[in-house]
Design goal:
single chain; 498 residues; alpha+beta; Chloramphenicol Acetyltransferase; seven-stranded mixed β-sheet; six-stranded mixed β-sheet; 16 helices; 18 strands; 39% helix; 21% strand; globular; acyltransferase; Putative diacylglycerol O-acyltransferase tgs1; O-acyltransferase activity; transferase
């Protein structure tokens, strides 16, 4: 062993002494969960299987009265679609798709029941048609109202936790006719990657090589390091949490904040949501700016988001040293066993929101992202969330309530196919997501979705964090301005030097 490795081993080992008491504190919950599984197997044969911890962490939601963790994904396709064709393709390509003798997406035929404090999958009542067509054409305003309604609409007990709604855009002579296929899923069933997996299954014709093929998660660079690096997991975790506690807030004064309470209605939840989904941006522009400055496209998007946040939340300026905690999604280092389900962990980094110079902010953001990927914090966080999600549903609800005042920015990046695919034989034009998660959460969410060369940016938060009317749209417009600043930064610098 090298001297440096021996020194690091001696440095890291003391903090591991905290692990045994933490394990002993968690063990009773784990044993109770195992006991519940045995009792369910003996006496509740209607229950299929207990939810995995990664799925169970979304089960605290009031699924059958007023859900806030539903995902509404809208796929726009060219022309007028045949609802019966989509219904039949969905049945053959998705509902009845198999790998060997097993269904590829069994969750689509399940619902959730709670037994002894833990959520279980159970076979849902047979519903003949979960694909419905709205014959009236919709305007952009009516489409928005429909998406909001679906986001907070309760699911019916005993029925599957998904549905598909098909609508047509109202005729506009200035644009080509198009239709919208709206997918609604509860987050316990799948994440954004699972939704894209089903989108690809609806392509016609299907590629033989892709049918039934298992997906695996990309292993972050930190997971390929030496065993000594793993010894530093507690230190990385503590250090990242300390940085987060020292970072600033987007809204320092929270005295006027209001929470939804325990018995809110869907309309009350909808009234708390502030959001805006921008028009498509060419993703080639992001690549061009990244290549121009020698950074990744991810760094370009994150830096532009930070600049947009600074101009919206601190229009009168903020200290140069001001920082804010940013969370972003990463793939965990274990194999993905099923196409649906939740298979994402998060990495954290301290972002330089106070940096006024766009180029300096871009470089600092790139360095912060590199350090985040080197850290073992995402792995530790995944294990911690897996552990906490093993507790009963009531305890999980209390844990989520405690996070209400924790302000941070979450940037989710969902990458679609590089070429715009066909969907049931129709050319896919665009895709965008809606979520109500942020009405019960003090963070601000920025969702980035790419499809072909099209990038969509969505800004989501509660009215506590975005109190001004149109503030979410203001942030989206500022994002585009920040891209302009980065694109022409070199030219401006050359003009100044001349």
């Amino acid at each position: 062993m090298r001297k440096r490795s021996a020194f690091l081993t001696c440095l890291y080992l003391p903090l591991w002494l905290l692990i045994p008491p933490l394990f002993l504190a968690w063990l009773p919950f784990h044993l109770y969960r195992c006991f519940v599984r045995i009792v369910a197997w003996l006496f509740r044969r209607d229950l299929t299987t207990i939810l995995t911890p990664s799925d169970a962490r979304f089960s605290y939601d009031r699924i059958y009265t007023s859900p806030i963790t539903s995902m509404v994904s809208t796929l726009e396709v060219e022309g007028e679609v045949d609802p019966n064709h989509i219904r039949e393709t969905w049945r053959k390509q998705v509902l009845e798709a198999k790998v060997g003798n097993r269904l590829l997406y069994p969750e689509l035929g399940w619902t959730i029941k709670t037994f002894m404090g833990h959520p279980f999958w159970a076979k849902s009542r047979i519903v003949e048609d979960r694909v419905r067509f709205i014959p009236e054409d919709v305007t952009p305003e009516q489409l928005l109202e429909l998406q909001i309604s679906l986001t907070f609409q309760p699911f019916k007990e005993g029925e599957p936790l998904w549905e598909i709604v098909i609508v047509r855009r109202k005729y506009d002579p200035t644009v080509a006719p198009s239709s919208l296929v709206i997918f609604r899923f509860h987050h316990t069933m799948t994440d954004g990657n699972g939704v894209f997996h089903m989108f690809r299954k609806m392509a016609l014709p299907q590629s033989k090589g892709k049918l039934g093929k298992k997906e695996t998660c990309t292993i972050p660079p930190a997971m390929n390091r030496s065993p000594v690096r793993y010894l530093g997991m507690p230190y990385d975790f503590v250090a990242t949490c300390r940085e987060g506690s020292r970072s600033g807030c987007l809204v320092p004064d929270t005295k006027s904040w209001t929470s939804l309470g325990d018995n809110f209605t869907p309309s009350e939840a909808a009234s708390h949501l502030r959001f805006h989904i921008c028009e498509p941006i060419p993703f080639s522009r992001i690549r061009q700016v990244g290549a121009q400055h020698g950074v990744t496209g991810t760094a370009v998007m994150h830096s532009a988001i930070l600049g947009a946040m600074r101009s919206s939340f601190f229009p009168e300026g903020t200290p140069h040293s001001a920082t804010v905690m940013v969370e972003t999604n990463l793939h965990p280092p274990w194999r993905k066993e099923r196409p649906l389900g939740n298979n994402i962990t998060k990495g954290n980094y301290t972002a330089p929101i106070g940096e006024l110079d766009p180029l300096k902010r871009l470089i600092r953001t790139q360095e912060a992202l590199k350090e985040m990927k080197k850290s073992t914090f995402p792995l530790t966080r995944a294990i911690l969330f897996y552990t906490l999600a093993s507790v009963p549903r009531r305890v999980l609800q209390e844990i989520n309530k405690r996070q209400f005042g924790y302000q941070r920015i979450f940037i989710g990046n969902l990458a679609g196919p590089l070429d715009k695919p066909n969907f049931c034989g129709y050319l896919a034009k665009d895709v965008f997501n809606m979520t109500g998660f942020y009405v019960g959460y003090a963070g601000l969410g920025v969702v980035l979705i790419t499809l072909g060369d099209s990038l969509r940016l969505g800004v989501f938060a509660s009215r506590n964090l975005l109190p001004r009317a149109g503030q979410a749209e203001e942030i989206a417009r500022a994002f585009v301005r920040e891209l302009d600043d980065l694109q022409f930064a070199n030219q401006l610098q050359q003009c100044i030097e001349m």
